[in-house]
Amino acid sequence: MNEHENYIEIDLDTIDRYLEYLKLEDELTTEYEHCIQKCVESMRSALDSENYETAYRIAKKLEESSAFSNSVEIEECYKICAEHDVVEALIYEMEQYIDKKRKTVEPEAFPYLYKLAGLGYIKSFRWLADCYKYGIGCGYDCEKAKRLYFEGMLFDNDEYCRKKYAELYLEIEEYSGNDKLINAIKIIVCSINKNKADYKRTEIAELILEGKLAEYRPESACALLNNIDGTFNGMTDYLLGQCLLYGIGTKINPVVAKCLFEDAIFYFSLILKRWDDNCSETNYLKSLSIKKEDYLSAYDEAILLLEEAKRAENVFDDLTEDIAFEEWYKAEPLFIKRAENYSLDDILKKGLVSV
């Protein structure tokens, strides 16, 4: 064999570059490991100094990093943060003991669910209600379960909670009094017409905003309105638009308020045009004793509010408008806010919403 047959020409400049790349990669790897270690030390320091919100956020970043593999330390940090009422950590721990596919909850979830329900986290109501109804991690208590199913039905628009609430509140179907709230609850629980139920949810939100449902703050009305799926009666958009225009229970956002008023006006005009027709769009409203004059008044008011929202919107440039919409669509109405004198314990003990 020719001794030069396997000869490869050596380019020393290229070799130098390769070696430089390897050196840089080694330095970057070393620096990356050093940064990870600093993050770990910062997380531990935050825990030691009782800065649990910061500790949780650092742990979350570490969990997302492929370079950090000590999941035990992260889990321990989450657990400590949950013990000190960091909401995200509580949610994380809660979800470890809930099987959403099988719709089951383990006893270990109870303390986390209880804390989250006290903070108004609407996704906890259903599971905590199941704990009380079936004695999972706590004693049996159907009255507490009923109240929590009610809150899940109302604020999270949860169909499972509606069915369970109906099972525990059989007498609601026989109610024939004049209480506006109880009549609204009766329709939500018993009516097979979704439009009727959604209209009554809007009415309950209005009661909260008017201060006539003392247990809840305006933030609860916003959560309720946000979780009503695709109503076409105009009233939901009309009411939520006012909340956003004036900052009632939420941040002021005239950009989104304007869009809501435009939708409300569209639906109001559609309903008013067909009011005297025998059609499904208006018949369900008539069956709720809604008057045409109510819609005419709301229509006129929505036009004025739309102009007010447009004037407020003029202070926004295109970028700010994009941010306003992005914030709105990203924000999930996951929390209600109870009045100061109505803790979770107060509500569960008194069973305030009942015939």
The tally of strands reads 2
Strand order of the largest sheet: 1-2
**Strand fraction:** under 5%
Give Rg in angstroms. 28 Å
Describe the protein in words:
- The chain is mainly α and 355 residues long.
- The protein has 3 domains: 50-96, no CATH class; 110-193 and 200-216 and 341-355, no CATH class; 228-332, no CATH class.
- Helices cover 66% and strands 1% of the residues.
- It is built from 17 helices and 2 strands.
- It has helices at 12-48, 52-64, 71-83, 87-96, 110-118, 125-134, 142-155, 159-168, 180-190, 194-209, 218-226, 235-246, 254-273, 280-287, 292-313, 318-330, 344-350; strands at 98-99, 104-105.
- It has a two-stranded antiparallel sheet with strand order 1-2.
- A hairpin with a 4-residue loop joins β1 and β2 (104-105).
- The termini are far apart.
For this entry, give a set of tags:
single chain; 355 residues; mainly alpha; 3 domains; two-stranded antiparallel ribbon; 17 helices; 2 strands; 66% helix; globular
